[in-house]
Design a protein that fits this description.
Elements (H helix, E strand, L loop, with lengths): L11 E2 L5 E10 L2 E8 L4 E5 L5 E7 L2 E3 L2 E3 L4 E4 L5 E5 L3 E7 L7
Antiparallel strand pairs: 1-2, 2-3, 3-10, 4-9, 5-8, 5-10, 6-7, 6-9
Length: 104
């Protein structure tokens, strides 16, 4: 069992200005869970990952393409599904990455 409080996370800078991450769990290159926190206005450029992504908003407001998500909202992107993201306010999200071989 792995239990951590977000207040204890050792946040690390990413290559995207305005964002930090903490790796919660890793089961392999295509299976992991990461917490990200973003400053308002941070943009994640359009991308189309080769694997499943599940995003859960913990706090703040997050824009995924034309959809605005708030705390408790979940979005799932299928492999090769292009999307762009933006923090509308200071935001924390949890991203779970799934194996690329999972069925639709």
């Amino acid at each position: 069992m792995h239990i951590r409080s977000m207040s204890d996370f050792d946040w690390q800078a990413t290559t995207t200005p305005g964002s930090e991450k903490y790796e919660i769990w890793r089961g392999g290159p295509d299976a992991y869970m990461v917490a990200y926190r973003f400053k308002a206005g941070t943009v994640i450029k359009a991308h189309a990952p080769l694997i499943w992504e599940q995003l859960t908003v913990i706090s703040g407001r997050w824009q995924l393409n034309d959809h605005v998500l708030g705390p408790g909202d979940v979005a799932v992107s299928a492999p090769n599904e292009e999307h762009q993201e933006r923090a509308l306010e200071d935001t924390v999200v949890i991203v779970s990455i799934g194996n690329k071989d999972l069925p639709a």
